[in-house]
Amino acid sequence: MFRKIQYSLGVKVQMICEFCGSGDFASHTTREMMHGFRDEFEYLECKSCGCLRIASVPDNLAKYYPCDSYYSYDVTTDLRTRLRRLHLRFALRSPWIGHVLGGSMHLQTLDWITFFGLDRGMKILDVGSGGALFVRDLRSVGFTRALGVDPFINEDVQDESGLAVKKAYLSEIGGKWDRIMFHHSLEHISDQVGTLEIVRAKLASRGLCLVRIPLANWAWQNYGTSWVQLDPPRHLCIHTEKSFRMAAAKAGLKVPRIIYDSSEFQFWGSELYKKDIPLQMGKKELAKHFSIGDLLDFRRRSEDLNSQGLGDQAIFFVERED
Prior knowledge:
This protein has one domain (about 65-320): Rossmann fold, CATH 3.40.50.150. It has eleven helices and 14 strands. It has helices spanning about 80-95, 95-100, 105-115, 135-140, 190-200, 220-225, 240-250, 265-275, 280, 285-290, 290-305, and strands spanning about 5, 15, 25-30, 40-45, 50-55, 125, 145-150, 155-160, 160-165, 175-185, 205-215, 235-240, 255-260, 315-320. The strands form three sheets. The chain has an eight-stranded mixed beta sheet with strand order 8-9-7-6-10-11-14-13, with helices on both faces. The protein has a four-stranded antiparallel beta sheet with strand order 3-4-5-12, with no helix packed on it. It has a two-stranded antiparallel sheet with strand order 1-2. It is globular and about 50 Å long.
């Protein structure tokens, strides 16, 4: 969150960036376009570290997470799910085999699995699990000690092995964890440094945390408020690489490795918004708006941006400083 400084006569309140301490911001007005509500929200961009913050979190935030259509609540087990789990099983056995198979998992996903050093005996905590999609994937291939936590689900999620996701805040989960993961959930949390401090306290002595988040990078600079991963008002804080490193350092953590894993989504999603087409509507009929050539070009350009460290999302590997 931004810190506020109250001047002595109570005349002025200055906003201070919690990551770099700057008080210089640019203001941007944007709209909710995933579901097409088109409600307007103000975001503040720190001119020093580049992070983006929603200026005021709406009181009715739950409105923007409809249980019947928000993607993280979808836990349908279909052919694609079974193929993904089979691919995950092979990737864990041998990253080379995973790369050869391709298809159901991005190559960057295979890279993080390799670097993350997963072992089936580890205690793994997935923060912001929603309907437990990834936790279920892990448990299906032998990670019996994987658990999810999410305060916004209606109730605890059970699977055939028992409790899969606990309805709770991260701070309410006890014990030490070998691996902690945030798969596009940290950006939905207001208190960034405080959350990372909790991560530090819960990591085992040689533990590692994985944080996958969108980044204000080339796509933000070029699409502005039409950038699909700005995603107001759900994304409360969007980092740059610089601001995330600062946040981690403030929490007593370090970042030994980053993998940029942006995809063609940054192009076609943002192009839909430029045309005033809501995401949920536009993605059902992509062929109407983009040719196969367009989508292949978007993928190639995304790979180029990743190679330059300019993609609109990345995977941060985080560990304790001591």
